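Batch 3, record 17
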Amino acid sequence: MAMDRMAGKALLVTSAALMLLTLYLVFIWVPTERNLGISQRIFYFHVSLAWVGFLAFFFVLVGSVGYLWKRSRSYDNLAYASAEVGMVFTTLMLITGVTWAKPAWGVWWTWDPKLTTSLILWLIYAAYLMLRAYAPAGSQGARYAAVLGIVGFVDVPIIYLSVVWWRTVHPPLVVGPAAEGSLEPSMRAVLMVATVAFTFLFAHLLMERLALRRSEEEADRARVVAESNLAGYRAMEGA
Amino acid sequence: MKATSLTMRTLAAALAAAALIALATTAALAQTDGADQAAAESAEDSGPEANLPYLFAAYTVTWIGFFAYLYHVSQRQRSLRREVEALREALEERDRRERGGG
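Prediction for the assembled complex:
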């Protein structure tokens, strides 16, 4: 437990230091893009948030497959915690996206394949979290959620490849195996630093959420013990 | 003790977020300082600085979002710890009364 706290603190300090470096690089070091102007600097946060969101949902996939295979609560907790943190990143990715779309395209939103599939991803994992909240407690709810966690991840490669498969107003891919567009080396370096900074922040948030999940389970167990003891006490009083 | 540590971490995160927002804002605004005033005025509608509010909004919302989430997690953690503690105390109290009564 003490190791967890130390690791959490180390992740927080590292992510804060990397964030400061990212901000310096984004606002002072990297040149302004010629066509899009100053609003292009949203790109560094927007793309990093998207990548880390995808990473979080990959953890949901791993946790869900692991749970269905091994039936271990640890895998289920990983999937649940990662889905919630992933939703934070994906929500912020959508918000930064619409904030960039307005100055770049003149509209807040357009039903472009990449935007639409991203919104679908957000809705899938919103449904996942609603299922976790309302499904019966215990293994049944975890099983349903695991299936949704696996099926939902199918949308991630669709989002990534949507600019290759369909005609879209979204810029071409600049990173990853299917990258088509080019990015100036300094811009690529800033994007990498920002992505690493957000990955550390994700790791910290995931650890915090996993600790909360353990507390939720401890509270559930304490409630069960208290209720059964109280029932026994009432029965004794009645007799 | 754990709750205190978590609160301290939340406060540290809050301060870090505030510092980052301040730095981002200052750095972004500083870019306009050196620009020629007349050029800045003429570019108000179409120049690169016209999009500064969007840039500011995107970065601010991101940090507020992370801070709000971290705050939510820490509050929930604290309330659960309090609940577990209260349940434990209630059970101990009942055990004491049982032993005392009989």
